[in-house]
User: Fold this.
Amino acid sequence: MSKLDDNLAALDGHLARFRETGILHRIAGADHANAATFDTLSPVDESVICQVARGTAADVDKAATAAHDAFPGWRDMPATERRAILIRIAEGIEGRAEEIALCECWDTGQAYKFMSKAALRGAENFRYFADQVIQARDGQHLKSPTLMNITARVPIGPVGVITPWNTPFMLSTWKIAPALAAGCTVVHKPAEASPLTARLLVEIAEEAGLPPGVLNTVNGFGEEAGKALCEHPKLKAIAFVGESRTGSQIVKQGADTLKRNHLELGGKNPVIVFDDADLDRALDAVIFMIYSINGERCTSSSRLLVQDTIRAEFEAKLVERVNRIKVGHPLDPATEVGPLISAEHFAKVTSYFDIAREDGATIAAGGARHGEAGYFVQPTLFTGATNDMRIAQEEIFGPVLTSIPFGTEKEALTLANDTAYGLTGYVWTNDLTRALRFTDRLEAGMIWVNSENVRHLPTPFGGVKASGIGRDGGDWSFEFYMEQKHIGFATGQHRITKLGAA
Ligand code: NAD
Assistant:
């Protein structure tokens, strides 16, 4: 048997229970069904994986109430005990990493090559934030002439977490781990297109000893369950990852209950390749950052800005490599690009092939569907593009790269910043002074020089402009999930201004 056959057989075993029961909500440690359900499909062959409970405002109310009721107990549990539970969750994820990876691939179309690592990164997120639990609430003492002022951080309360479908398990842990470490309780609504691994996460958490109601999962659609989450008065904040226009909806929906929002949104990230760079490494990174994870990656470098002196040679090498990228079954370990998530997303991504032609760009590689069934597309490269074209301005969110030439550093900077988004930027140059100057002026929340995106958990993750508000990572996560509290103690008999005493 090939590794693909092995993986398919193992997956079949893991899916049997979902076929039987469907995916139910998990609220206060118990399953909850709905009369209404929807199908989750595999993008590999468009088959139904299972039924999923379609959450309503009433389900969200139950889950928010459970999170509200569980909050004091979780907040007040000794930090060492909360830390131990988070470590056991990390161990539980590691123990079921293979199951998580297989289910994720089948549910999302992401290649096993990347999802096996993504499951383990989920465990790393829990381990990292477990280590932060002990000092998360520490504060400062800020002495004034008359007062001993102290600060403390306290968890904000029950929070809602809304996640997208592109790498759902890893992204969920990235939000839920710091929330739990802070002492918050959580209602999680995973994306309707990829509900499988959120169910595995809540099971693992409960098996690790997380008390009932601390993590609750409600499935369903954004405009129904997601909206109800944003509007619920018992939830104090919404941590959201998804599209920029949904982010704006999240803010509107949460206005009446004064929600605190953390928004991680879309991107149209530039990778700028100067002619003095290590071009072989730049080529590898350019390809990795747009064609891995099916290009369904918020930090993908979807706009290549390449210096005109090296453009022809660089693009020729790109075409050769892009044409060799292995598109195939996501459970085949050799596959580099799997199918896109859904029929709707497939239609969106492939519509840009005509848009590119209409706008006058050249399709230098790909530009068509791959195979007959499933939502597979060929890795695609557009050349001869200008920055005002739709293929240079809109987030396509697929394995599609737009290459734009530039002449001078000044021009590169203008093109790089000429976008509504500002999530990441990648700069390839061996001129240190230029790198310093350029990164100083580049409008992005995260920039890598002579590197692809290498995530280091203590660093801040997030975007500027339409790419988001707020930061994850390190202590920045706690800034969102916690409130600062100030307490001033009089150190003597300072003068209190007397009114009505004259
Ligand atoms: P999406 O905005 O369509 O959906 C994300 C989540 O929001 C889903 O769970 C959905 O059900 C929910 N939702 C939709 N409408 C809602 C509403 N009105 N109220 C509450 N919830 C609602 O995004 P998507 O298509 O699932 O994911 C792809 C997008 O996510 C891309 O734009 C990508 O760049 C972005 N993304 C950003 C980051 C980041 O860190 N910046 C990471 C991953 C993905």
